[in-house]
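[09:14] KT: can someone run the structure on this one? pasting the chain below
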Amino acid sequence: MYVGPLETAKQDCANPSPFDEQSATLRAENLEFNPSWVEAYVGAPTLASSRNSVSDVQWDLIVEGSNWSPELEPTTHVGYALGHARVATDEGGNWRLTGWESSETPKVGDDPPACAGPACEDNRSMREPYLLAELNEEQELRDLTLAFARELVADPSERDLFGIQIVRPVGGPSSSIALPGTPTVSPADIPECISLRDPALIPVDPEALGGYWLLFTCVKGPEPARQIHAVRISRALEIIREGGGPMRRLVLDADELGLFAAAGIRAPEPVISFTEDGLRLRIWFLAQGVPGDWAVALAEARSHDVELLELELPEPLPFVVNPILDNDSTLVLSGCVADQCTISGMAVTPRGDDPSRLRFLLARRLKDTGGDETYQLIPLEQTWRTP
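[09:31] RB: done, structure tokens below
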């Protein structure tokens, strides 16, 4: 057939490789968490990678868990807590199924997190953690900063309303976290959002000396969330204000993303790198074309200007082939032994021994016809190359 004139041009975007499936599927049991707080559910992972003092690769994993199933949420309040696990592996190796150093009790939250009766009215859910590993030039861990959704209860009859808590230092798996009296950012700071969920942090410079952009899902009502916002936070973990209110930006809007996000978006997962020719910022997030059918999507920042990052968050442009993983994807269905295997969450971080290599952790829910549920964390990897 006849093909008309063609033009080619070098594109200024990073180039992903196909996903590589890893072998070590994780569950609450091989993470060695106490069943008292993860008996029914574990999910919403966050992952950080660094080198330790002997140059092994250290993996820090924080998850939310509950002794009650999330399936009960439409009829009752389900409580959640956060736990921490850590393991070291050889350079270039996969993590192990055993040998994790883990929280015996929740790192933050109640044990058990879900219960009924007057004694439980003061319980608070801690959900959707996000870990930011701040590294030195040798990729060794300098600091861990943790953000998570913290339930706010002014009236025991009004539950599932959240603010965002950011804490530092995080410490090891056996270290618990004492919470201050108020969250770092609350719905009172962002009046159009009745609840703030799914926090994530983007440092504004390589050492995070200028602080962070805090990303979060803005919940405006009972319908699924449709926007991801960002607020500027100082190094001292305080809100930076402009014009009488928080310095705030709209990051992603489902109304502008297309059919793959027609039923809402949530859970941003950013990865930023600072190079000689500027910054590279990519944001993975969950999107649903129809209610309940979550998929993984990707956006990449249009601008690479490091100097503007303290004042402006670059506009993220959706990837041309979104979603990049959905519930029909081979990687999601691989090893599925139930009637239904679906995506429930996702984490991503650069490897401490190879920053061009990204480790993904896909949270998967397995449900069979008898109603039994299993929750797993599936590791994937991908290489990204810049132009």
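[09:33] KT: thanks! The chain has two helices and 22 strands.
[09:34] RB: yep, looked fine to me
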